[in-house]
Amino acid sequence: MNLLPWPAQIGSGSDISCAKLYPGRGGRQASRAGGDRAPGTGYPERVTRGSCVLFLALWGCGSQAPECPPCASASVSAASVSASAKSAAPASGPSTADATQAAELTFRKEGERVVTLTLSDLTKAIPAETVKQLDPYYNKEKSYRAVPLAAVIELAFKGEKDLPQKEYVLRAKDGYTVPLRGSKVFEKGAFIAFQDVEVPGWEPIGQQRANPAPFYLVWAGKDQTDLETHPRPYQLAAIEIARFEDVFPRTVPKGLAADSPAQKGFALFREQCIHCHAINREGGRVGPELNVPQSVVEYRPVDQIKAYIKDPLTFRYSTMPAHPSFTDADLDAIVAYFTAMKDRKQDDAKTSGK
Ligand code: HEC
Questions:
Q1: Whole-angstrom distance, CA of residue 81 vs CA of residue 58
Q2: DSSP letter at 23?
Q3: Of 90, 140, 242, 262, which has the fewest beta carbons less than 10 angstroms from its beta carbon?
Q4: Nearest Cα to 103, choosing from 133, 89, 123, 125?
Q5: SS3 for 131?
Q6: According to DSSP H, which parts of 55-117 are helical?
Q7: How far is ligand 1, taken at its centre, from the CA of residue 135, in Å?
Q8: Is the CB of 277 under 6 A from ligand 1?
């Protein structure tokens, strides 16, 4: 499998700022749209490889940069942040163990904090297992100590009904954000790993040698190694119940028929693009904002946009993944979405404290 490296995963201590982290999650496996995409499902069941997605306003960040999402947020202890900073070499020894013990996961529902659980809260309530699987980030078999994701969700949101029917957002401490449907969250094989069995203090991940601590979403099944369908956010800090439309309301092309090309383009965009690109200031920051102040359809010819999305490297070298399996209809739909959003610009400062 041809994994693109993740460029510069920068974390350099507890003063991490999102500005530094933005480039951190750019590269990824080229999308394979069409092939495994369930038509019309809309909600992204696959990676939303955001970088610092703009959740600051929606969720409250408590971090440094005003445009910064809840990276290095209160939910991540300084200890675990500095543990990650040591990622250049697999650290071992008591300090790493302490940092691991101090690891916390925060759970929110529609913006409100529900509970924060430490690793020992989790492992006291849920028997840990050893999960051995082919890890696509390391490109080899890895073993982790881990707890099943479904059990973690049930513990954190106990009393909440219909958990498998909800929509979730998983956030890494740098703001990298993965929306997941409940059906995916409750899929057998999903685990929250908290310890690398072979390498004390975790084997660094990817070219940037990021440390996956404190928590890393992994999948145990043989058919769960595709990062598109089974994303693996590492440095996981928070798990939230949140509807896509509530998290990214300004990306929704309101007032259009459900079967319009723009709606189809929106479905593609939110599955495959939003984690890197913002529309109306909502979305990822790895790639450029595509709607404000000018929509990409206002400054680039449509044919060029379509050719670029399909094969960006023929234009310039960057971390924008190719989308070789997009059909002409898919590309037309995405352009229809951009065009619809051009007439729905929102560029005022986001209101905070939702
Ligand atoms: C992994 C992150 C990532 C994903 C996923 C991604 N892009 Fe990009 N995209 C980028 C980056 C980075 C650039 C800027 C590249 C450059 O400057 O050369 C870019 C550039 C673009 C541009 C050119 C903008 C301009 O003004 O030049 C368009 C259009 C675009 N992307 C559309 C899309 C669409 C549509 C999707 C989803 C099908 C998508 N991108 C998915 C990272 C991404």
A1: 23
A2: G
A3: 140
A4: 123
A5: strand
A6: 56-59, 78-85, 94-101
A7: 26
A8: yes
**Domain architecture of the chain: domains with CATH:** 18-246 (3.90.420), 248-342 (2.60.40.420)
Going through the chain in order, the beta strands assigned E by DSSP cover 104-109, 112-118, 129-135, 140-148, 167-172, 177-181, 190-196, 216-219, 236-241, 278-279, 282-283
Write down the pLDDT at residue 142: 97
Token output for 184? 């995916």
Which residues are 147's β-sheet partners? 192
Backbone angles phi, psi at 117, to 5 degrees: -115, 135
Mean residue pLDDT of the chain comes to 75
Rounded to two decimals, what is the model's pTM? 0.61
pLDDT for 199 equals 96
For residue 16, give both structure tokens: 């991490």
Q: At what angle do helices 261-272 and 328-342 cross, to 10 degrees?
A: 100
**CA–CA gap between residue 197 and residue 130 (Å, rounded):** 8
pLDDT by residue (tens digit) across 60-115? 232 323 333 333 233 333 333 333 333 333 434 344 455 555 799 999 998 899 99
Q: Residue 175 has what pLDDT?
A: 67
Q: Name 257's Cβ contacts closer than 8 Å, sequence gap at least 6.
A: 263
For the chain, residues with pLDDT lower than 70 are 1-101, 175, 228, 349-354
In angstroms, what is the span from residue 165 Cα to ligand 1's centroid? Answer: 31
Centroid of ligand 1 to alpha carbon of 104 (angstroms): 33
Q: CB of 5 closer than 6 A to ligand 1?
A: no
Looking at residue 101, its pLDDT comes to: 56
> pLDDT value at position 74?
30
Q: What is the pLDDT, as a whole number, of residue 65?
A: 31
**Ligand 1 pocket, residue 175 CB under 6 Å:** no
